[in-house]
Design brief:
alpha+beta; seven-stranded mixed beta sheet; six-stranded antiparallel beta barrel; 18 strands
């Protein structure tokens, strides 16, 4: 079997590369080891697929802490608005939500995948189910790939778009790193990014899985004695630590994990200053003088968090409101505004949204995504050493690098 362009990986970047390679008149084939393309897209945005961010190129780069400038050329040639136009022209209505996050109006990731797959097939690009086990190189030039069934697909150009190693059940098992390294490329050490965080302090069974909405967070670097990240949104409490969108975004700012170096402060009442929250607490304690402390707590916190909070402030829930001292009241306010968790580790890379690290950008032409080492070899998507914050930026980078590699 012989094609002009062979693409290993049928995810976001691979399918976008397939569309634009075939649209340019080249015979193109995608090799995907899963029975369906785009499996990782099914779980993005909690199954809704946050496919880009409705912003300019500069904002995408600002939200790409690792090698954002490398993406400048491909983002300029395929901007967030180009991505939106790509899907809307193919019949998928989109909407913009908080933080300029873009979703399909249907709130179904499956509709994004179906639209992308349909575009691939209409372009003339073929999709073949199979697993590439090695790429074939001769005289520093790629000429094909060998599949697990023993067959060989020959090609003039080959794009590695096989993803990272997060969520391995979707097929992202790090194959691309192995192919690139075998070809002589440098692989920047891999680590989890946009990942939940393990903390020294633990929540109880009641709070496990509790989603806190509209909370503020601050990430503190104790070694540098400064706040290095702030955010507002959702966090999820776990027995082992913290998860949720704002926590995953905060994790991208932790470059050297040292147990105890980083702390997250959770503001459970960001709409109220300390003074206003204290005044509210005074009123509610006064109104409930004959009742237990738990009565007031139910007006301030989700029921699942009350036992944990009582333990944190060391005030029994059965204590009478009239017996709460000024010192205890001030402690309650402080913990509601600054519930501090000490970070000890990242959760496993399998739980990360993206993988940081990968093929060194020093060995890739940013204008074409071509290898500087092997002729005819290109890269697209998460296999490259970049990573972005949450908000649609990672998928935007995948689409832009895929578009660039496919055209090139």
């Amino acid at each position: 079997m012989n094609v002009d362009t062979l693409i290993i990986g049928g995810g976001a970047s691979g399918m976008m590369a397939g569309c634009f390679s075939a649209d340019s008149g080249r015979s193109t084939m995608i090799i995907e080891k899963n029975s369906k393309v785009g499996r990782k897209l099914y779980i993005t945005g909690k199954g809704r697929c946050n496919l880009t961010n409705n912003c300019d190129v500069k904002t995408v780069i600002t939200n790409t802490p690792t090698n954002g400038r490398f993406l400048y050329s491909c983002l300029t040639n395929f901007t967030p608005h180009d991505v939106m136009e790509f899907f809307e022209k193919r019949g998928l209505p989109l909407k913009t939500e908080r933080g300029n996050r873009v979703f399909p109006v249907s709130d179904r990731a499956a509709d994004v995948i179906d639209t992308l797959k349909s575009a691939v097939l209409k372009s003339g690009c073929r999709i073949k189910t199979g697993e590439a086990i090695r790429i074939l190189i001769q005289n520093d030039t790629v000429f094909g790939a060998e599949l697990s069934d023993g067959s060989v697909v020959e090609c003039r150009k080959l794009i590695i778009a096989s993803g990272g190693c997060s969520y391995p059940l979707t097929g992202s098992t790090g194959d691309g790193y192995r192919f690139a390294e075998a070809a002589g490329h440098t692989i920047v050490p891999l680590r989890a990014s946009l990942v939940p965080l393990v903390t020294a302090e633990h929540f109880g069974y009641d709070a496990d899985g509790l989603l806190l909405k509209n909370i503020g967070i601050k990430l503190r670097d104790n070694k540098k004695n400064k706040i290095i990240y702030t955010d507002f949104g959702e966090a999820e409490l776990k027995r082992w630590g913290l998860s949720g969108a704002v926590v995953r975004s905060a994790s991208a700012h932790i470059r050297e994990m040292e147990s105890g170096r980083y702390q997250i402060e959770i503001d459970l009442k960001p709409a109220l200053s300390d003074e206003k929250l204290d005044a509210r607490l005074v009123r509610e304690l006064s109104a409930a003088q004959g009742n237990e402390f738990s009565v007031v707590m139910r007006t301030l916190l989700p029921a699942a968090l009350i036992k944990d909070f009582s333990r944190i402030v060391d005030i029994p829930l059965e204590k009478k409101c009239s017996e709460i001292t000024k010192t205890e009241r001030q402690l309650i306010v402080d913990r509601l505004k600054r519930l501090t968790r000490t970070i000890t580790d990242f959760r496993p890379v399998e739980e990360a949204i993206v993988t940081s690290g990968g093929v060194s950008v020093k060995e890739i032409d940013p204008k074409t995504m071509a290898s500087k080492i092997i002729k005819g070899l290109y890269f697209a998507g998460e296999v490259i050493d970049y990573d972005c914050y949450t908000g649609g930026f990672n998928l935007q980078a995948a689409f832009s690098t895929g578009h660039c590699a496919g055209l090139s």
